[in-house]
Design a protein that fits this description.
It contains nine helices and 38 strands. It is an alpha+beta fold.
């Protein structure tokens, strides 16, 4: 048997030269070329293929939308019930392209034919997978029965998952045009719709076959187009351009139906999901009756037209009494993601960005061959960034970025997610857990060294104030720490009670809703009789341990409200100075009053008040900032190094209509940062640190970091080993952390192995 004649080889070569892009049958390209063809089972295809090789080669070489492509799926009617015709057709296609990838679908055992064979299917396994075949329908000769089983095929494009599956319903409906014939066609269509509707909304289905329908008003045709989950759409029309029967007027083989081109019997109807341009969809303008460009003579042979090369038209007229119906389909996008190497350890405060290459990997022949990829990049945890974008098929990938949050030292982690909601897209979700260590290599890291938030001070070695707490007896005077609900009384100028107990309140810098402690100053001259502080000046002094830190900075949250005085013996002032290790006091924050200005203050209940002569504060080396009755953070540098930092506030204010308050007095500085599991503080978490942990494993209490206590809970246990395992860098390691940290069970197994090794060493 000759499956590919010399003339068909020559034809394929000549057509391929004219194609804009030609795809080999062995390649899994995104586009699918699907063909429906009633092959007229009236001769032995295996022994006498006639011109089928020429026809199939010409279909594969035909250019539409800028590309040519071999047949991917061939649905047939009037094929042998035992499947031998489908096997022969697969052999022809394999012979044309020199491949072995074309295969025939098996005929289900319950497939029944009342004559003229059964539907069949041949597919290129390099481009689609056949997942299943079923036969259904009430077959018989009765007026409510269909003449042959319906064959339904479930297929999946190569390289995609179940979301890209599609179905082909293959039918050879009852011929002729009596009312009984029409009724039997409608019975079969009803069975098809019942089956496809049951698949639910969103199903991608193609209804192919020899419908034997004479016009669009017939019940069978309207049943397929009726509303419902499986509603069909007709991409074409009942016009001469789409007629499929008969291409012949002269008998070429016994049983061939003649009569010339005058009927549209063969179809590829589709569900709406295949017409929306998303995911798998039929390409606009690709539906055609092969060989028919509308130039043939009505009721004449197809050879009277110019819809294909003369030898192809001759083959069409001699091989069947139907013409093939061809349509091309785009396939869904494919998400591809590559994340650049992520360093295992970075310096605190460093700007570290990570590139993410996002691609649409659908292997289209042209940009029309695959859906665009709509994607979202998002991150969680200690990662920053996120974006969205769209990538067309064949377009270059897009490089996006996220960054590592390095503001504070320690072990950090997060999740990188790239997802797409493009219909049926392959690899639609990409996730990558990452971890990295900030600081810990001995480099300087800005850290909170000391603070007094008036609730839980840090490294505060001493505090003094003059006059001492409790000195003032007048309710409007005060210097010191206050807390709503705790302090016996709070001067009214300091507290804003407008939204609570005192709706008519017109002065206050601390909202009464604030529950933690703070420091306030008002009327230091004291309006008691006799005055408790006749000198009028108040001071407060803090001393902090700042040893081993450099580049110190002081931040304070400050607020003020009132009509302040800029001149005179009792001018209002709130000046901060500092001293290192008992040296001279230097300016830190210096207050000033602008008597040419005014300020508007908004209290907690929303009432607004405009007062003259607002208070401003100038950090050393900075610019003046006007204070309001809302706490705002001011920061000033400390010049020099030392072990003890003393901060001093000198305040003087006369009268009960001015108030100054502050909170969160914080000292930061650069200190050498070492990872919690860097037990020898050499800048690396490595085998030396593991040896330290092994040597001290089991210490129940009193352990220090240099003994293997990473979490500083006083013992050396498995938790400290896990910290070592998570923070490991090795000497100078900068490896990417695309490999996830072992699950707890795995880590415990490794821990057990380490313990065994340690015991063997001791026993040895």
């Amino acid at each position: 048997m000759t499956l590919l004649t010399g003339r068909s080889l020559q034809l394929l070569a000549s057509l391929a030269v004219s194609a804009v892009v030609f795809c080999h049958a062995g390649s899994a390209w995104a586009q699918l070329r699907i063909v429906d063809y009633n092959i007229a089972q009236n001769y032995d295809i295996a022994n006498d293929p006639g011109g089928l090789d020429v026809i199939f080669a010409a279909i594969g070489a035909e250019v539409r939308n800028g590309f040519a492509k071999p047949i991917d799926v061939l649905a047939t009617q009037e094929a042998d019930t035992d499947g031998t015709d489908a096997v022969a057709l697969a052999a022809i296609l394999n012979g044309i392209y020199g491949v072995t990838t074309y295969a025939a679908a098996l005929v289900p055992g319950n497939g029944v034919s009342g004559g003229n064979g059964l539907p069949g299917l041949v597919y290129n396994s390099a481009s689609v997978s056949l997942l299943g075949t079923i036969a259904f329908g009430d077959v018989g000769s009765g007026s409510t029965q269909q003449p042959r089983s319906t064959l339904r095929y479930q297929l999946r494009p190569a390289g995609y998952d179940a979301s890209a599956d599609f179905y082909i319903y293959n039918d050879h409906y009852k011929s002729d045009n009596s009312s009984t014939d029409q009724a039997r066609r409608n019975v079969e269509a009803q069975g098809v719709r019942s089956n496809s509707d049951a698949l639910g909304e969103g199903t991608h289905a193609i209804y192919v076959g020899d419908f034997n329908v004479y016009n669009s008003n017939e019940a069978m045709y309207q049943t397929l187009l009726a509303a419902g989950p499986g509603q069909a759409v007709d991409p074409a029309s009942f016009t001469k351009l789409y007629d499929t029967q008969s291409p012949a007027t002269a008998l070429a083989f016994t049983g061939q139906v003649l009569g010339g081109m005058d009927d549209r019997f063969d179809f590829q109807l589709i569900t709406g999901e295949l017409q929306d341009g998303e995911g798998m969809s039929q390409l606009a303008g690709s539906y055609r009756t092969f060989g028919n460009n509308g130039t043939h003579t009505t009721d004449g042979a197809i050879t009277t037209g110019t819809g294909a090369a003369p030898e192809v038209l001759t083959a069409l007229a001699q091989s069947s009494d139907h013409l093939p119906v061809v349509a091309d389909y785009q396939l869904p996008a494919k998400l591809g993601v590559q994340v650049a190497s992520i360093p295992a350890s970075v310096s605190a405060g460093a700007a570290v960005t990570i590139d993410v290459l996002i691609q649409n990997l659908a292997s289209a022949i042209t940009a029309l061959g695959a859906d665009e990829l709509d994607y979202t990049l998002s991150v969680t945890g200690d990662l920053l960034g996120g974006t969205t974008g769209t990538i067309a098929a064949l377009a270059a990938g897009q490089t996006r970025q996220f960054s590592l949050n390095t503001t504070t030292p320690g072990l950090k982690s997060g999740l990188v997610t790239v997802s797409t909601n493009s219909q049926g897209a392959a690899n639609a979700l990409f996730t990558l857990p990452v971890s990295f260590l900030v600081g810990g290599g001995g480099e300087p890291v800005r850290t909170v060294i000391a603070k007094d938030d008036f609730d839980a001070p840090l490294n505060l070695t001493s505090f003094q104030q003059t006059p001492t707490a409790g000195t003032y007896t007048a309710p409007a005077s005060g210097l010191g720490k206050f807390q709503v609900g705790v302090s016996a009384s709070i001067p009214f100028a300091l507290l804003d009670e407008s939204a609570g107990a005192f709706p008519t309140d017109a002065l206050g810098v601390i909202n009464a809703a604030k529950t933690d402690a703070w420091f306030g100053v008002t009327d230091t001259l004291d309006n008691a009789m006799p005055a408790n502080n006749p000198g009028g000046e108040g001071t407060a002094t803090w001393t902090f341990d700042v040893s081993d830190a450099s580049a110190l900075e002081v931040s304070i949250d400050m607020a003020a409200m009132g009509d302040f005085e800029a001149t005179g013996t009792n001018r209002d002032r709130f000046d901060w100075t500092y001293s290192l290790d008992g040296g001279d006091f230097l300016p830190l924050f210096t207050s000033s009053v602008d008597e040419a200005a005014s300020a508007t203050y908004t209290l907690a209940d929303g009432d607004m008040f405009n007062l003259e002569d607002p208070l401003s504060m100038t950090p050393t080396g900075g610019v003046a900032m006007q204070l309001s009755n809302v706490l705002q953070t001011l920061t000033a540098p400390i010049a020099g190094l030392g072990d003890l930092l003393t901060l001093r506030l000198i305040a003087k204010t006369d009268g009960t209509s001015e108030a100054y308050a502050f909170d969160n007095l914080t000292v930061t500085g650069l200190v050498a940062s070492f990872a919690a599991a860097d037990f020898n503080d050499d800048g690396f978490v490595d085998g030396n640190d593991l040896a330290t942990w092994q040597a001290n494993f089991g210490l129940p209490s009193g352990a220090a970091k240099n003994q293997g206590d990473a979490d500083l809970d006083g013992d050396v246990d498995g938790a400290d080993y896990l910290a070592w395992q998570q923070q490991w860098t090795g000497a100078g390691a900068t490896a990417a952390v695309s490999t996830p940290v072992p699950e707890p069970a795995s880590a415990l197994l490794l821990l057990w192995a380490c313990l065994i090794c340690g015991r063997r060493h001791k026993n040895g």
